[in-house]
Structures are given as structure tokens and as C-alpha cells.
Amino acid sequence: MWFVRFLTSSIGKKLVMASSGLLLFLFLCTHAAGNATIFMSSKVFQSYADELHSHPLIVLVFSLSLLAIFLVHIGVGLYLFNENRAVSTSRYAVSTRVVKNSLASQTMPYTGLFILLFLVVHIFGFTFSPKTVPISVTVKELLGNFFYALFYILAFAALFLHLSHGFWSMLQTFGVNHPRYNEFIARLTLVFPLFFFAIFAGIAFYFMTGLGANY
Amino acid sequence: MDMSSINLTLKIWRQANSDALGGLETYNLDGIHTDMSFLEMLDVLNEKLTKEGKDPVAFDHDCREGICGMCGAVVNGVAHGPEKETTLCQLHMRHFKSGDTLVIEPFRSRAFPVRKDLLVDRSALDRIIQAGGYVSVNTGGAPDANGLPIASQQAELAMDAAACIGCGACVASCPNGAAMLFTSAKISQLALLPQGQVERKQRALAMVAQMDVEGFGNCTNARECEAVCPKGISIRNIARLNREYLKAVLSEG
After folding, report:
1. Which of A1, B43, B103, B107 lies in disulfide reach of B11, CB 3.0 to 4.6 Å?
2. A87 contacts on B by Cβ (under 8 Å)
3. Partner residue opposite B249 with nearest CB, options A6, A86, A98
4. Which segments of chain A are extended strands (E)?
5. Which residue of chain B is at minimal alpha-carbon distance from A175?
6. Do A92 and B76 touch (CB under 8 A)?
7. Is the Cβ of B227 closer than 8 Å to some Cβ of chain A?
């Protein structure tokens, strides 16, 4: 069947990674937009969260879809990591990378796994936090802890590195590569990860330093 | 003419056959003229080894002018050595200094079994071509040269892809041993021209399937292939291959 052939081919698996990556990128955009309200005040953030959770069906459908997308991205990613490791270990006595700034592409599986660890901590900290405590209070409490916030900032640094290869790589896999746009794409591959880092790590920093404690 | 010479320490991968365990052996080679090519340097070593009654180093080579795709080895971790867009035969010893240690290893991939020393079996690339890297013209005389208009831009892009000599440096340098740059060049040169349209989708599916069967790795967009390609093949061709494959898998048949 064509679908099975597609999913088991090397390019098919790459396209699954790129497609799920794109959906996760779009999720990050909405999550960043929602969370950024906390910079206005905890009250605004709380009303955003209350509004969101007043539509339980939407939250349920989106959560389950997001879970599925994550599982696909992580599952296929780990499968590819394992496949590639089988062919790449100790091939040469001397191996030299010719491409400069290849740190991000070399560390994709590791930054990915670190983000997965963060996800587990994040979901247990916030998604499954006691319903009796308002979420804005939970944010202040958890991110007010220096080490908790530091872990968050490190995770967002890993996300930055992951996306600084992932965003370009996704477009390349979709077949988007044209001399007219490559310069622009290269800039976006820096701007988007920086944007997410600024918002997400910014929030962690905001509460870690106590700046946001009284707003 | 200044014929300066250099002294080198060579660490070369020696392996008796596909089943034997190989290892690096060290040779000291003095008085190498800097105007020699890398292969001529190996010739000098082999003459010396032969005179000493030892087994010369086996390596592939043919035209020695950078167009046949037969030669190639990994020099200090870089396929075809340190010069950009240069095959091993066109790499000259003037790019090295006296006292340098050169580690010379065969092009490695799961799909490239080592036959002897630096000589690897690259027939997996031939089988990818056989799977669909052709156009079927079963009848008729030679068509009129101007009968089939081709835009200059298309012809140029097709020629850029057709510059691939199939040496396998892309595979050797890829962290995953993938043959995507090679396959994408072979698919692009036909997909860009009108003659290649009839079998376009079938070709993309068959060549990618063969590439996977041969045991090449997956592309992770590490870009090492285009960095070492002696013919400067761009990964824009890989993007084209991804498009070709997606279109074909969604609509062929």
C-alpha cells in the first residue's frame, strides 16, 4: 500500500518529522501568545486561563491532538536516532565536520530528549497542578523557585538550539529551498527560536528574579 | 621552476579483503614533490612498497583529471581531502606541509563494503541508477536538436545536477552514510528536462526505494555532503528530490 511504503521510506520518515515539527511549532506560537499575557499582569493571565478552560471540549480535543503529535515526533525521532546511530558509530579514525556551526544539527536527538524531560516536569507541575489553586498562583510559586526556573531557562535554551536547526531543516524536507529565499529562511531560523526563547525564558526569569511577584 | 619537496607521515587503512579485520598502518614518505597530485604521492609510496617486497596500497583511480568519479579517500576526516570542490586526483601536495601526518581511510558506509585497503565497492550507487535513473527511448531515429525547446534556466539547473560524477564522497561524509545528494542529483537532472517527464514519478519512487534497500542512512540535513562534493552539487537538489518523492508517492498509480 502506498501509505505504508511512504511511511517506511527514508524520505517519508523525514516528512513525518517535518510535519509533526511544523504542528508543534504552531502550538508553540499559540502557547507563547497566551503565556505572554502574564507580562501584563497575573490577573490578565488568570482570566485568559479561565476563559480557555471554560471550553473543556476544545481543551480536551486540542490536548489529545497535541499528545498524538508529540508522540509521533518523539517516537519517529527516536526510531531515526537509533537507525542513524547504527550506521554512524566509529566509522573513521579521524572524523572532521566541514560544515561550520553544526552544533545544532549534531545535537538534535539530545536537545530533543532534554525538551522531553522538561515536558514531563512541566506537565506534572502545571497541567496536573491542584485545581483548587489558581494557575497564576502556581506559576508564581513554581517559577519563584530559583532552581525550578533555572531548569526552565536551560530547557528553553535547548529548544532554541533544537529549532535553530529544526526550522530550516523542516522547510528543506518540505522541499523549500530556493536561492531567492534561502537568506530569508536563514534569518527566520534565528528569529523564531529567539522569539520563543525571549517569551518563555523571559517568563521564567521574570518570576525567578521576583520581578513579577507583585503584578 | 621551484620543485620543493615535503616529508610526510602517512597512516593508511590496510585491509586484505572484505572479511579481514583492517587497521591503520604508518609509513614515512620523504621527498614528495609539492607539484605531485595526491594519487601520484600514493604511486610513489606503492613503488617503494613494491621494491621492499610489500603489498602496495590498493586504491581506485582512472582518469586522474577529476571527471570520472573513480578516485576518492577520506584524508584527515574529509572526503577528497581539504581542498574545496576537488577530487583526490586533483588535490596537489602543495596544500600540505612538511612533517604533516595524513590519516587516509576508505569512503565508508554500510552500503560501501571495503574490498581492499582504500578500495570500496560502490556498486550500490549503480543499482540506484539502474532502478530508474534513465529515460526509456524504445524507437525512432535521432530527434531534431531544436524540436524540443528547453528553457536556458532549466538546462543550466539540469547540467548543475548532471555534474555529479558518482564518486560517493557525499555518502562518505554524511554522518549517517546517506546517499541523498547522489540520488537527488540523478533524479534532478532528468526531472528538470522534458525527456524525463514520462517516467518522472515512477523514477522517484524506484530510486528512493533502491536507495533504502541498499542500506544507506537517513538524511538529517547536516549539509556535510554539499560541503565536500567535488562538483559542488547543492542540497537544493535534495529539496527537489523531497518534492519529487512526495508528489510521486501521493499521486503515482
Report:
1. B103
2. 109-110, 176-177, 215, 217
3. A6
4. none
5. B239
6. no
7. yes
Model pLDDT, residue B3: 64
Strands B101-105 and B78-79: unpaired
- Nearest CA to B92 out of B34, B5, B50 is that of B34
Average pLDDT on A115-124 reads 96
Closest to A169 in 3D by CA, of A79, A104, A82, A87: A104
Least trusted range by pLDDT, from A85-94, B23-32, B102-111: A85-94
d(CA B165, CA B96): 26
Is pLDDT of B1 > 60? no
Same domain flag for B90 and B127: no
Grid cell in block for residue B242? 523531497
pLDDT at B172 > cutoff 90 = yes
Instruction: CATH number for A10-84+105-208: choose from 1.10.287.130, 1.20.1300.10, 3.40.50.300, 1.10.460.10.
Output: 1.20.1300.10
For chain A, domain boundaries? 10-84+105-208
| Residue the block writes with cell 526556573 | A149
Interface check for B74 against chain A (CB to CB < 8 A): the answer is yes
CA separation (Å) from B192 to A72, A159, B198, B205, B238? 34, 38, 12, 16, 13
A97–B218 C-beta distance less than 8 A: no
Which of B173, B239, B249 minimises the CB distance to A172? Answer: B239
Q: Do B212 and A9 touch (CB under 8 A)?
A: yes
Detail the DSSP E strand segments found in chain B.
Answer: 5-14, 23-33, 74-75, 78-79, 101-105, 114-116, 119-120
Query: Please, which residues have CB within 8 angstroms of residue B83's CB and are 6 or more apart in sequence?
Result: B91, B95
pTM for the whole thing? Answer: 0.94
* Domain harbouring B21, CATH code: 3.10.20.30
Q: Which domain holds residue B197?
A: 123-135+150-251
Q: What residue of A is the nearest CA neighbor of B75?
A: A94
Summarize the confidence of residues B91-102 as an average pLDDT: 96
Nearest CB to A88; choose among B78, B105, B217? B217
| Cβ <8 Å between A87 and B209 | no
Domain count, chain B: 2
